Structures are given as structure tokens and as C-alpha cells.
Amino acid sequence: QVQLVESGGGLVQAGGSLRLSCAASGRTVSSRGMSWFRQAPGKEREFVAQIGWNGNTYYADSVKGRFTISRDNAKNTVYLQMNSLKPEDTAVYYCYANLGSEYWGQGTQVTVSS
After folding, report:
1. DSSP letter at 83?
2. For the segment 98-107, what is each residue's pLDDT rounded down to a tens digit?
3. Are strands 10-13 and 108-113 parallel, antiparallel or unpaired?
4. CB contact at 8 A, 80 and 68
5. Could you give the count of Cα atoms lying within 13 Å of 64 in the half-sphere of its Cβ?
6. DSSP 3-state assignment of 88?
7. Where are the beta strands (DSSP E) in 30-107?
8. Is the pLDDT of residue 1 over 90?
9. Looking at the chain, which terminus has fewer C-beta neighbours within 10 angstroms, N or C?
10. Could you give the 3-state DSSP secondary structure of residue 16?
């Protein structure tokens, strides 16, 4: 059974930083792309960032230049470094993996105060 567990969310002032982690268990994810999504209250879930098995990265325009996705294959973990946070970044952040079947983490709340 594959599990994705996010951590690192919290409350931060605008301009601050947070680092989210997504630890995978039950299966190695090093050969697969991993992604972060987020969902703000009253809005649909949206793509934030993706890292390919080869390390290639992709970002939503809204976070480009501020967020960095990375992975540590030895730890089976993906990270999202979020800098220069804005109130509009407030959302529940989810880790996602498509390993033949789709897997989502439980989410971690990020709240950015103005």
C-alpha cells in the first residue's frame, strides 16, 4: 500500500518561507514524476509544481521564481521550498504521484498572513 505523507505546513507572514516535505512509503518513487497541487477555500485544486524522474522541473506561472521542487531519492521524499510567500498562496498543499494508480497525500495547510 502506497502512502504519501506531507509535512511542513504552517502559518507564516507574507514574504516568509516554508519547506514542505512529501514522504512516500510502500513503493519507491525515484523512477516516477512527483507533483504538488494546492486547493484554496472555495477554489478547485490546482497544479503547483512537478519533478520528473530525471530531475526536470515544471512550475505553475503563479509560483515560478518563488517555489522550488526537489527530491531525495535515498529518502523517497519530495520537497517544495516556498519563498516570498503571498497571502494568495494560502491553501492546503497536496503531494501527488501517478504510479500506475494515482495517489494523493492527506494535505498540509499553508496559511500566509498579510
Report:
1. -
2. 999 999 999 9
3. parallel
4. yes
5. 6
6. helix
7. 34-39, 46-51, 57-59, 67-72, 77-82, 91-98, 102-104
8. no
9. N
10. coil
